[in-house]
Prior knowledge:
The structure holds two protein chains of two kinds. Chain A has 19 helices and two strands. By secondary structure, chain A is an all-alpha fold. Chain A has a domain at 272-486. Chain A has a two-stranded antiparallel ribbon with strand order 1-2. By secondary structure, chain B is mostly helical. In chain B, 9% of the residues are buried.
Amino acid sequence: xxxxxxxxxxxxxxxxxxxxxxxxxxxxxxxxxxxxxxxxxxxxxxxxxxxxxxxxxxxxxxxxxxxxxxxxxxxxxxxxxxxxxxxxxxxxxxxxxxxxxxxxxxxxxxxxxxxxxxxxxxxxxxxxxxxxxxxxxxxxxxxxxxxxxxxxxxxxxxxxxxxxxxxxxxxxxxxxxxxxxxxxxxxxxxxxxxxxxxxxxxxxxxxxxxxxxxxxxxxxxxxxxxxxxxxxxxxxxxxxxxxxxxxxxxxxxxxxxxxxxxxxxxxxxxxxxxxxxxxxxxxxxxxxxxxxxxxxxxxxxxxxxxxxxxxxxxxxxxxxxxxxxxxxxxxxxxxxxxxxxxxxxxxxxxxxxxxxxxxxxxxxxxxxxxxxxxxxxxxxxxxxxxxxxxxxxxxxxxxxxxxxxxxxxxxxxxxxxxxxxxxxxxxxxxxxxxxxxxxxxxxxxxxxxxxxxxxxxxxxxxxxxxxxxxxxxxxxxxxxxxxxxx
Amino acid sequence: xxxxxxxxxxxxxxxxxxxxxxxxxxxxxxxxxxxxxxxxxxxxxxxxxxxxxxxxxxxxxxxxxxxxxxxxxxxxxxxxxxxxxxxxxxxxxxxxxxxxxxxxxxxxxxxxxxxxxxxxxxxxxxxxxxxxxxxxxxxxxxxxxxxxxxxxxxxxxxxxxxxxxxxxxxxxxxxxxxxxxxxxxxxxxxxxxxxxxxxxxxxx
Lengths: 486, 204
């Protein structure tokens, strides 16, 4: 490497574009002064869409190492980045109406979402422990701020603070683990780590490496809110403004799962005997806690928090499998998860009584009479999350459980199916409230135009996934084989 | 050689002692001053291992900016530190327990430490010969070429931190009179000066 060589940057075009777009939007918001939330938001949505186009055109497998090997490309990163970009863009669109009505329409919100999305894309593309950490911090720091964006509300600031303190601890654990791994291997580069761990011989890795690996897994498990690192999730989900909760439930989860997948498979692929049991354990805990704790909730946002903890457990089943079908199963599950959650949050964001937003599960009673279409859409999403065939959620679960069975994790698959049955109870409870209970106070009739479109599209995808799953499944398989091969 | 070893132990001992004082001293201003002492000794340790650039940066950035900022915060915010410490004794046992466990783990890990045989081959940034390139140049070479991606990304993290601080704390206050130089210059005589005919004995 000469002192003056310029790094290969073209495959990172989407990230570079998004960074510049974020700064331009910030300037636009500052200089337009008041009432610029809508303009900046739509600008952010356009920027995210253009970034998605750049991911498709430039993000393919690069022959040369990008940024001296700090940045990885290929179908796996492309797949995950498209999901992240879609999740963030939809979250911004869904936030417009809510933020305006609640009087927190500040242009910094979309700007921070764009920068958080950039961090998520860097996480997905990380090819180095330092790059992983910097991407993770860029994402987390933006999310801490938008969690407490309603700064006059005690609950929102508490959510932000709690998220910040626990997030800082988890970052500390991640760094501590990384330093131990670096101390053993002498490199932070994923390819270098893979090379080191592939030549360990019979004696296995040093104790320090295993401890380091467990610390790294703990740090990342916090980000995907897997049990026992889940405590922040219900409080943060409940305290944040609902569009922020929607964002939290979608984009960062996709990015963190993709990151965990890459870290486990690429640098630590040869240590599978060491990490598999850890992942299996947190997967079981997450599935069981997600299923049981959600039953007693009265706030729909808390319920969604436990539901997302449960879903993370199912996704970890696919990671624990550690084989190619596991990876493709996780990717398919993430695709389905994105649509189910976006749709459900579109419904939650349409729950208003006399102009006020409500978030109790009881407020949904009698929904089938007042809003038959919305009730039907929510029915589809909830059935899908419960994993009832032929809806999309069933296929997500099916692929990860098949992968687990393929690699001999029968107990894990059985516990997963049982947890899924228990989980179905609380989804069905909401459906019962919507369809069979009498409404005390009906929800407002008016639903925003953006929400209608979002609900319609996501419901259609969730309902009709089984008709034409081939393109998604084929893409996910290609991405998985690229990850396993590379 | 003996002078080097002696210097190392002196600096290291003072650094650790002042670190302890940072945590234990009652007056927060004293804590910050001890922190500055700790930074200076750490800088001296860097000089001892031949990293004079990092030593200077440590003094310029940490002592010159960060510690002074701490001092300002401590003096301006007027936090009641006695009140903050009230829960200390209650959490002390569990804190000490966790500390002990971590220490035991560290000893355990450190005692059984091995390096991988591949380490020398996959090593990313080998330390260059001190005679060949001085260390300011060596750091510059790495930071702005090989690690340019991380350097830029760290810049973005700082940008987010700045936006966040402003979003969460800045308030537009009403009724604040700001100087508008443009308006002051653009003012015309007719707007501000009124010629009044005063009748004799009538007043204004």
